[in-house]
Amino acid sequence: MRGFRNDTQYCSFCGKPAGEDRSLVEAPGHNIFICDKCVAVCQSILDQKQKAPTPIEMSEVPSPREFKEYLDQYVIGQDYAKKALSVAVYNHYKRMSSVQNANTDVKIEKSNVLLIGPTGSGKTLLARTLAEKLKVPFAIADATTLTEAGYVGEDVENVLLKLINAADGNIQAAQRGIIFIDEIDKIGRKSENTSITRDVSGEGVQQALLKIIEGTNASVPPQGGRKHPNQEMIEIDTTNILFILGGAFVGLDKIIEQRIADHSMGFGSNIGQMSEEERMELLNQCTPDDLVKFGLIPELIGRMPINVALKELNKEDLKRILTEPKNAITKQFKASFAIDDLDLTFTDDALEEIAGIAIKQKTGARGLRAIVEKMLMDLMYEAPSIKGKKKLEVTKEMVEQKESIDFTKLLSEQKSA
Questions:
Q1: How far apart are CA 83 and CA 104, in angstroms?
Q2: What is the value of pTM for the model shown?
């Protein structure tokens, strides 16, 4: 019988007997054995296969137009940014599909993207929505929390661990995912001159990011944190991971205007007096030299071939964000209250006031949920305790909340009416 020789158990793979340094595992009901050494070899082979990049079938990747149409359902405005991102993502996955092409003379480089726009303009939402459309793992990191290896803070490689966790530990899936790194402008050098002292959260982080963005075999601690000698590492190839970097880049428009003015091609107006459309036109003329002057290192800029400016959202944009997208905030609250038999509606004046508060707070679309959540907190507390069908219309006065609202009384009056 296989696995036995003279009543001694042997590994059916390598043929070696069980002993103090070799344990055997039996296949249930078959009297076939495999030793721990052969299991380790098999695991190593499987790991190597998993690390290999998998070519993508272009039939599975939406066209740029389909990407844009999908983004339109969730992101209001920013048409140019949506178009540019759609093309960049399509080209990135087209590049990955070229692994199947026998002609390897021409190497297509990654189309990583730099998004320039104020807080709440939709940078994170654009990146997340693209990942959802592609059904690939997606991770978000804040550049301001990152430091060089060996310093207090979070290692740059931990960004990759977030992507691996988003892929539920599937390295192969993570290697074709998307990473969004926000606040990249906050780690710019303070000047164009290289500093003699260490810059652990600025240029040093840019250098560390450069390695993983351009493509490398990175070693990631499975539990995050710092690397230690003899620690087991997760190996991941970043060659086919798409990186989208974002930041507000406050003051970049002044750098661009100064350059244009120096070449006698000025806009003829002061930055502070520019309309949002003029400012957008200015930012879309951004060159690598402008970003170097701002504080990014040339090598990192070279790995971000696509720069896209996002406009600051106005009150009308914010009103549309509250109501139009598939997962609009007002639709989410209506669905949530419907579970408690409450029919919730918003007047146009209420939406106008909510958008106005977000403008004053300079939080953009990011602050809309917090404003509505705070306004409806007492209602969310009281509504489940009041049984039966209920209706409530949110008005401008409720949003202003100059006085606390007695929602119990208000809902009771609505029911009796």
A1: 29
A2: 0.75
The residues, any chain, with a CB within 8 Å of residue 95's CB and separated by 6 or more, are 108, 109, 110, 111
| Cβ-Cβ contacts under 8 Å for 360 (sequence gap 6 or more) | none
Sign of CA dihedral 125, 127, 128, 129: positive
pLDDT digits (tens, 9 = 90+) for 241-258: 999 999 999 889 899 988
Rg over CA atoms, the chain? 28
pLDDT digits (tens, 9 = 90+) for 194-223: 444 444 457 888 988 998 998 888 888 876
Distance between CA atoms of residues 231 and 217, nearest Å: 17
Helix (H/G/I), strand (E/B), else coil: 375: helix
Residue ranges of the chain whose pLDDT lies below 50: 1-2, 4-6, 51-53, 100, 102, 151-152, 192-200, 265-268
Distance (Å) of CA 189 to CA 186, 269, 294: 9, 29, 8
Those residues whose C-beta lies under 8 Å from the C-beta of residue 22, and which sit 6 or more positions away, are: 11, 16, 35, 36, 37
Beta bridge partners of 346: 394
The CA-atom distances, in angstroms, between 313 and each of 283, 308, 343 are: 15, 15, 29
User: Residue 119: what pLDDT?
Assistant: 85
